């Protein structure tokens, strides 16, 4: 549900007299701010909501409730402090302030806020783990499978054991 932003409240007296405009007080912002590096809408799973299934798309995703299933988003995935996710997450950028039980793959970056609790592996070219965050799993700073280049510009290929390694192909083409 999309709610329009409230710019102010207009109060009118009887027959239009005594008109005054009241500006609402600013509300306290969330501690986790999303990086809006691209335009688009944000899908929100609200606190108190439980969702199971598959989510994919190009818009950003904010999880404040509970989610079981799979997430594959080309934008930002934000797991808020109240969010609980039991699945692997694939996205361009992932920020976790809540709980994730599953692996996280970030094409650009993964960030764990101080309140984050993650049980699973992290794989991204850039990983930021803030003091206080809890992580039980492996950390690998490389491009996730399916991306064409690593952070140093070299091509990457997936090994049989599932780990990433630089592509060591020769300049000769196979016939």
Describe this structure in words.
The protein is mainly β. The chain has a domain at 38-154. The chain is built from no helices and 17 strands. It has strands spanning 9-11, 20-22, 42-45, 50-57, 60-63, 66-79, 84-86, 89-96, 99-101, 104-112, 117-119, 122-124, 126-129, 134-136, 139-141, 156-158, 164-166. The strands form three sheets. Strands 3, 4, 5, 6, 7, 8, 9, 10, 11, 12, 13, 14 and 15 form a 13-stranded parallel β-sheet that branches.
Strand proportion, as a percent range, falls in: over 45%
Distance between the termini: 55 Å
- Could you tell me the radius of gyration in angstroms? 21 Å
The biggest beta sheet is recorded as: 13 strands, parallel
Fraction in helix:
under 10%
Structural class call reads mainly beta
Record field, number of beta strands: 17
Q: Uncertain spans, ≥5 residues at pLDDT below 50? A: 1-39, 149-175
With helices defined by DSSP (H or I, 4 residues minimum), what is the helix count?
A: 0
- Average pLDDT level: 74
Helices and strands, in order, run as EEEEEEEEEEEEEEEEE
Shape: globular
């Amino acid at each position: 549900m999309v709610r329009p932003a409230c710019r102010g409240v207009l109060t009118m007296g009887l027959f239009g007299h005594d008109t005054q405009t009241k500006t609402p007080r600013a509300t306290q912002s969330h501690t986790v701010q999303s990086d809006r590096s691209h335009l688009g809408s944000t899908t929100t799973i609200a606190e108190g909501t439980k969702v199971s299934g598959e989510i994919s798309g190009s818009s950003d995703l904010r999880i404040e409730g509970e989610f079981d299933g799979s997430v594959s988003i080309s934008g930002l995935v934000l797991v808020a402090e109240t969010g609980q996710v039991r699945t692997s997450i694939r996205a361009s950028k992932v920020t976790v302030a809540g709980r994730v039980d599953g692996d996280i793959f970030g094409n650009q970056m993964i960030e764990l806020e101080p309140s984050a609790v993650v049980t699973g592996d992290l794989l991204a070219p850039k990983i930021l783990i803030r003091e206080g965050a809890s992580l039980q799993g492996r950390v690998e700073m490389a491009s996730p499978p399916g991306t064409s280049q690593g952070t140093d510009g070299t091509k990457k290929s997936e090994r049989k054991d599932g780990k990433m390694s630089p592509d060591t192909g020769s300049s000769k083409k196979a016939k």
